[in-house]
């Protein structure tokens, strides 16, 4: 099994990203050969400030390494350090029907949100297909919003293999149905675009203030409360073990336990959980050369795999000079 996933460097990571994407990706390290990259080519469709892109790329690298990504087990790299994927994108784009891309929801959604459609935004799924196919990936863990892009990848790979002979492994999406949507401070899905997020590496004061602002109903301290409909509890149980979760649920139901106290308990358990990650991140941030070395080594390993696939695709299409002598 070869597992591959990518994340765009376009904003600070929050605990929704942690439970929904980072933690599952890090756990997959033990199940097969994992590739994880920072999708900075993709981010160019929305981030147009060079320094901001550099900074966000570094932030994602630090966040993942601080949270337990093991670069000996996972090939961790920057997408743009393997420019072979852009050549592969072109080879794939000539077999990609326009209609396939026109049907993509994420493109239509971005246009509906007012983004000016560039060619890059439109052909975004072809670059994503190249990312997946270059490494002969079998399994692609993604959020539900990215499922269609993996299906597009499968269609492109099947068509290419039919036309030119088998070059690509056909990948499967792995949708994390078991991972609940993490609620934000207003009870909706946590997302940086709704500004209801709790940052993974934000400062303590800001985190406390945001936790204290979590929206609850107006039940008085004395009244018994329903834990399952309360955002504070839904966040608490993500961090707590089964016994702590049960104890907290009992306190809700018993009454005499206020939301202020629940928020304090949530803030404390978040602090305890995130503290070791923060320490690790500070340590890494003081040694950026080490981080750079990790990404370079990841890129070398990734590039060797991508080069091999690209050469096979070039040969299959007749881009190898005169080819083997008859
Ligand atoms: P955002 O909505 O903050 O812009 P992204 O769309 O960049 O987040 O998501 C990056 C990854 O994190 C995706 O794999 C996505 O499925 C996951 N993710 C984001 N928000 C949540 C959430 N609230 N709950 C669970 N997973 C999430
Ligand atoms: N498009 C993905 C996202 O926005 C990121 C991504 C780029 C990706 N290439 C990929 C994910 C390849 C999985 C596989 O979340």
Please estimate the helix content. 40-55%
The number of helices is: 13
Q: Strand order across the biggest sheet?
A: 1-2-3
- Which molecules are bound in this entry? adenosine-5'-diphosphate, tryptophan
Count the E strands: 5
CATH topology of the largest domain: Rossmann fold
For CATH, the homologous superfamily of the largest domain is named as HUPs
CATH architecture of the largest domain: 3-Layer(aba) Sandwich
Rg (C-alpha, Å) = 22 Å
- Please state the overall shape, judged from the principal axes of the Cα atoms: elongated
Main β-sheet: number of strands, strand sense, barrel status? 3 strands, parallel
> Structural class of the helices, strands and pairings?
mainly alpha
- The domain count comes to 2
Low-confidence stretches: none
Chain-averaged pLDDT: 94
Question: What share of the residues does DSSP label as strand, in percent?
Answer: 5-15%
Q: Mind explaining what this structure looks like?
A:
By secondary structure, the protein is mainly alpha-helical. The chain folds into two domains: 2-181 and 288-317, 3-Layer(aba) Sandwich (Rossmann fold); 202-283, Tyrosyl-Transfer RNA Synthetase (Orthogonal Bundle). 55% of the residues lie in helices and 8% in strands. It is built from 13 helices and five strands. The protein has helices at residues 15-27, 40-43, 50-66, 84-93, 98-102, 105-112, 119-134, 147-164, 204-212, 231-239, 242-254, 259-285, 288-317, and strands at 2-7, 33-38, 74-78, 139-142, 172-175. The strands form two sheets. It has a three-stranded parallel beta sheet with strand order 1-2-3. A two-stranded parallel ribbon has the order 4-5. Helix 3 (50-66) crosses helix 12 and helix 9 (204-212) runs antiparallel to helix 12 (259-285). 35% of the residues are buried. The mean pLDDT is 94. The structure holds adenosine-5'-diphosphate and tryptophan.
């Amino acid at each position: 099994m070869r597992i591959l996933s990518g994340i765009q460097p376009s904003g600070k990571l929050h605990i929704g990203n942690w439970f929904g994407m980072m933690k599952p990706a890090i756990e997959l390290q033990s199940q097969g050969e994992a590739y994880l990259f920072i999708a900075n080519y993709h981010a160019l469709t929305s981030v147009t400030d060079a320094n901001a892109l550099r900074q966000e790329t570094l932030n994602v690298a630090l966040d993942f390494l601080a949270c337990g990504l093991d670069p000996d087990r996972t090939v961790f790299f920057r997408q743009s350090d393997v420019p072979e994927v852009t050549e592969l994108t072109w080879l794939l784009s000539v077999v990609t029907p326009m209609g396939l891309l026109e049907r993509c929801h994420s493109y239509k959604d971005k246009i509906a949100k007012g983004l000016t459609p560039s060619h890059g935004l439109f052909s975004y799924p072809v670059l994503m297909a190249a990312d997946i196919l270059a490494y002969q990936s079998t399994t692609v863990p993604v959020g539900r919003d990215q499922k269609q892009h993996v299906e597009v990848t499968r269609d492109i790979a099947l068509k290419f293999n039919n036309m030119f002979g088998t070059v690509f492994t056909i990948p499967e999406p792995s949708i994390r149905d078991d991972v609940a949507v993490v609620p934000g401070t207003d009870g909706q899905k946590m997302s940086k675009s709704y500004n209801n997020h709790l940052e993974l590496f934000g400062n303590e004061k800001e985190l406390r203030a945001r936790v204290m602002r979590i929206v609850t109903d107006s039940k008085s301290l004395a009244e018994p409360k329903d834990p399952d409909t309360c955002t504070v509890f839904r966040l608490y149980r993500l961090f707590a073990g089964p016994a702590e979760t049960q104890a907290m649920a009992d306190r809700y139901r018993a009454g005499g336990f206020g939301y202020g106290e629940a928020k304090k308990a949530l803030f404390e358990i978040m602090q305890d959980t995130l503290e070791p990650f923060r320490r690790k991140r500070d340590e890494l941030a003081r040694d950026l050369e080490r981080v750079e070395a990790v990404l370079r080594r990841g890129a070398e390993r990734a590039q060797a795999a991508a080069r091999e696939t690209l050469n096979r695709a070039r040969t299959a299409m007749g881009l190898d000079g005169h080819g083997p002598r008859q």
